[in-house]
Structure formats: structure tokens, C-alpha cells
Amino acid sequence: MILAAWLLAFLGVATIAMSNQASSRIVTGLAVPTKRRHRSTIWGSATLLLSLSVTIANDGLGLGLLLSPLLIASATAAVIVLLMISPRHLRPIAQLLDR
């Protein structure tokens, strides 16, 4: 379940990163439309909340509240590394947001 929570956190952080103009240009080569920026921020935030709830449901309130920010921080680091080294791996997430 921790892996599922981390994957949800990764998806949420990557989705929020795709709402940034600079990150979107790195990944897709295009600027982000305003409608997609708003939608991706909402979906990213919802996915991060879902990751928090999965962590709390799996590990209890105390450990879940401690573990969830750590998972989000490590997912953020993974997204940053992917943006720096090989942004093409984030392209499917950007294409998912275009639908």
C-alpha cells in the first residue's frame, strides 16, 4: 500500500508540475493553456489528498500523517530528477491531461 500511496503522490506532483509553464515547455515543447493549468492543479491536489488518505488508512492516523509528507517529498524529488535528466518520461502524464 505504501507503493500505491507513493505512486499517487508521484502522479499528483507530476500533474501539478505540468501546470507550470517552464515544466510543460520542457516536456511537451508547448506552453500550457490556461484551462489545462487549472484542471491539472485541481487533479494534482486531489491525487495528493488521495495519497494522504491511502497512507492514513493503511498505517493509522499517527504514522500516516508522518509518512505522507515524506512520500510526497520523495515523489517531488523523483519528478525533479525526471525533469532534469529525461523529461520525455513525463510526456504520458502531459498527454493524459490534454484529454
Keywords:
99 residues; mainly alpha
Please explain how this structure is put together.
There is one protein chain. By secondary structure, the chain is mostly helical. It is built from four helices and no strands. Helix 1 (2-17) crosses helix 3 (34-85). The protein is elongated, with a radius of gyration of 14 Å. The termini are far apart. The model has no long low-confidence stretch (mean pLDDT 90).
What's this model, at a glance?
With 99 residues, the chain is mostly helical. The chain has four helices and no strands.
What's the arrangement of secondary structure elements?
Blueprint (H helix, E strand, L loop, with lengths): L1 H16 L3 H8 L5 H52 L5 H7 L2
Helix pairs in contact: 1-3
SSE succession: HHHH
N-to-C span: 28 Å
Number of helices: 4
Poorly predicted regions? none
